[in-house]
Amino acid sequence: xxxxxxxxxxxxxxxxxxxxxxxxxxxxxxxxxxxxxxxxxxxxxxxxxxxxxxxxxxxxxxxxxxxxxxxxxxxxxxxxxxxxxxxxxxxxxxxxxxxxxxxxxxxxxxxxxxxxxxxxxxxxxxxxxxxxxxxxxxxxxxxxxxxxxxxxxxxxxxxxxxxxxxxxxxxxxxxxxxxxxxxxxxxxxxxxxxxxxxxxxxxxxxxxxxxxxxxxxxxxxxxxxxxxxxxxxxxxxxxxxxxxxxxxxxxxxxxxxxxxxxxxxxxxxxxxxxxxxxxxxxxxxxxxxxxxxxxxxxxxxxxxxxxxxxxxxxxxxxxxxxxxxxxxxxxxxxxxxxxxxxxxxxxxxxxxxxxxxxxxxxxxxxxxxxxxxxxxxxxxxxxxxxxxxxxxxxxxxxxxxxxxxxxxxxxxxxxxxxxxxxxxxxxxxxxxxxxxxxxxxxxxxxxxxxxxxxxxxxxxxxxxxxxxxxxxx
Length: 473
Hints:
It is found in: Cell membrane. By secondary structure, the protein is mostly helical. It has one domain (4-402). The protein has helices spanning 4-32, 34-53, 58-67, 72-96, 98-105, 110-132, 136-159, 163-185, 195-229, 232-247, 250-268, 272-286, 290-306, 316-341, 345-370, 372-397, 404-432, 437-459, 461-470. The radius of gyration is 22 Å and the shape is globular. The model has no long low-confidence stretch (mean pLDDT 82).
């Protein structure tokens, strides 16, 4: 098995970028508080949904058609033209309904939302084209550069007193740098596409657009609805817990983005056996980080959120539920990634429709009855529905084995890690008395990670062989 250096490069890039973003978020949480952090989360959620409307599955269709190897320049140009047209339409609509947008967020920032949508769509187009050219590692390397620039500019503007506006301007600058960098790295050029290219993109996008909606539903529906039912400070608390859960998804995202063009190429060449092997690999390693993260969230949730500030500790009750939801959703994402890669967007469409409906209905009902915990539980339950449907559908298309043994070994290693963390934490409380929460968290996470990977290396032959095959030595 060789998920390979590409997956590791993408993962390392995402890890560096997320670490930089995590540091910036900590600064904003401690300096500006939960209310402004909540408004920031609401703005990004609105921008994400508008950006989704600005792609309508065209970017994923562009990646798919380019990865098939025929006329990539024409498909890239056609995709860019469609997205640019949609961006202009969205910009006009946001300007027209600017007062309503401002009232929802609580600040007059509609013009900034237009800018964020434009640069976000620009970045989406270049990212899709890079992935279509199978330059996933280069697309991944741009991420930490953009986040680093974004974080530096954001912190500087917040220091100058711009608060929410400074955070949004910094975000726009970071996205613009990523988009420009992606454009420079592309090999395709601008050519005049014909009607067949647009039709091929539409044929795929008319089903795949719901996949983007499903992803946005998982990431943002709860935050958007919390903004309706609860005050901004609670949204800020929830978004802080979400940021930790999403941090743990870096590796499974690297796996899915790396494998998509490989799955697509193998299917286009009729190598269904290779497709099945790649699906099994994706399930084997999709939970590699999230499984120990779930145990860590249960044990260290309060300590982790205390780093953001005392008011964020109340989010500990939802943190482990959100991590469990991301674990289940991670497996669903690997299965849907395979369905899209083998050109079954209609099947993915149906699964996504069920997932989105369940997510919205459950969030509305549970948030209105039990608040923050309800949002997390709704997300977990909807992910459970989605992964069940995705597994059933993909197994009807491809014969593959579920790597229950490897997943079980990961849980066993995580349980051993949890025992070590509990013992070390007890030692710190009694014998050493390390009375510093951040230092304690860093130490416990480091010890836990070492215990987990050493145990897994010892009990899993698959993990050992994967490490050895992909080692630079």
